[in-house]
Amino acid sequence: MPAERWGFVRLRDTLAEPIRNGVSPMESQSWTGVEMLGLGCLTEDGFQPRQLKHAPSADFARHSAVLRDGDLLVSRANTRQLVGLAGIYRDIGVPCLYPDLMMRLRPSLDYLPEYLELVLRAPAGRARLVTLAQGTSDSMVKISGAALGGLFVPALPRVEQQRIIEVIDAVSAQERALQGSITKLQSVRQGTLLSAMLPLRGGEPPRGWVRVPLKDVVPVAEYGVSEALDRDSRGVPVLRMNNLAGGRPELSDLRYSPVAVSAKLELKYGDVLFNRTNSIDHIGKSGMWRGELPKASFASYLVRINPDASRLTPEYLVEWLMHPTIRQRVRSISTVAVQQVNVNPTRLRELEIDMPKEPAEQRRIVDSLYACDAQISAECEELAKLRALKSGLIDDLLNGAA
């Protein structure tokens, strides 16, 4: 039934009291019986009770900023990407304050908190909230309570609100089930990797395995291009540190070289790339190029470490580099720079690699991991389809088309 049948109402008119900002007193280092939310409690999935801090004293249990179960919270200040995140507060068992960077909305009896949360988290609602944010830098923008309260909300009867919530809850249950399946498959893959490369834990290599310095099977490390890059797609695509994920290239945010790139620095199928400069958490990412683009190169923050294919397959090398034990070894040989760490390729090639002596056995290990990857990829595709369906369904329901 079209929303126009009931019309629209300002968000402020759906509330039992005015929109209010929270408080941010100095936190206590000891337990006082009253907690304070951090801004990170509001996520793209709604409210999550995390980043909690201790209030200064038990007296704050009587403060007007103490939350009630069912209060709707909205982030009023954050980056442009995160500002306006909304979620329903659920009782955490102790009195809890919300911070000054959040706004509290208490719906009237005519409006369900879950319905208003849905309106604010819907794609159209998120887009409107982002446009309301004001600031000179995208790293910190703010939404005023007056602007938030001025948003239009479909004035649906409670019974219609409840119907919409139930429909979306059913889809959300499918979404959670798929996400749980993906998480289990990822655990299976990790277990397969750890089991297949058990010799990495130490001790003598088992029969059929060898342990050699990486430089014995990786003859050279090659640095990428150092030219300034831009967004002009007429240039040569160049992979940077953010273009490696899960052992593969990630091409959603490419930069381009406006000048010609030497043929020897063009990527070829089977090239192994290693991220030598990044944050401590991301240093050592690696991936194999599989001809994802007709022509591409790589930046100097990456090095190409192609193995001697007669002894070591590139696929096994990438899996070895991604092994948790090896990632930790890479971090241990990194040196600290300004806000980043670096790994010297010479030191990297001094690490010892455990590997099956026969490339065929290396391929067997990799094939078992790729079988897991295929299942994970299929589930991720289904999850993406379901989320797209959910987004469209929310807008249709709120507009009366479903």
UniProtKB/TrEMBL annotation:
InterPro entries: Restrct_endonuc_typeI_TRD (IPR000055), Restrct_endonuc_typeI_TRD_sf (IPR044946), Type-I_RS_S_subunit (IPR052021). The keyword Plastid does not apply. The keyword Transferase does not apply. Keywords: DNA-binding, Restriction system. One of its GO terms (molecular function) is DNA binding. Residues 206-385 form the Type I restriction modification DNA specificity domain. One of its GO terms (biological process) is DNA restriction-modification system. Belongs to the type-I restriction system S methylase family. This is Type I restriction modification DNA specificity domain-containing protein. The lineage of its organism: Bacteria, Bacillati, Actinomycetota, Actinomycetes, Kitasatosporales.
